[in-house]
């Protein structure tokens, strides 16, 4: 039977709907390989002072190096609230956001500026009660994740990776992220190739 509880959103309309939901939320689970400081700031600005956050993302060594400063800035913003826990999962590709185990956003969009403002995405917003397996999967991924602090300490002990500037990020990531895990697979598969991408400044 068709449901009126789910709505399809384009990338640019996601944050508007999300802000309204965040104003009433008590707890948020953010799942996605890429989260930048622009989207983090938008989420934090729309959230109440008691809301608790869980963020599941990629470890830095599984990110496009150019994105890492933006990820660090986003993670710092959440951790500075004192109400956030961040975990990492090496092969994470899912994109979802769950509020109070009741409302979910899931689809093709990643949680960074280019994806939500420029890229052509589809995100579904609806009730978790109608797709309970979504919450089961998200919670399962969360439980499989490792605390960010261990990854953060490892990164702090090393040098700045190739592609990183070591400078603080600001303004959000404004280009499409090249997934290093996907690129690795394509390089290793005979006959496969990765199309060149625009190296616009992030």
TrEMBL record:
Listed name of the protein: PLD phosphodiesterase domain-containing protein
Organism annotation: Anaeromyxobacter oryzae
InterPro entries: PLD-like_dom, PLipase_D/transphosphatidylase
CDD domains to which the protein is assigned, alphabetical: PLDc_SF
Record domain PLD phosphodiesterase: where: 88-115
Gene3D superfamilies in the cross-refs: Endonuclease Chain A
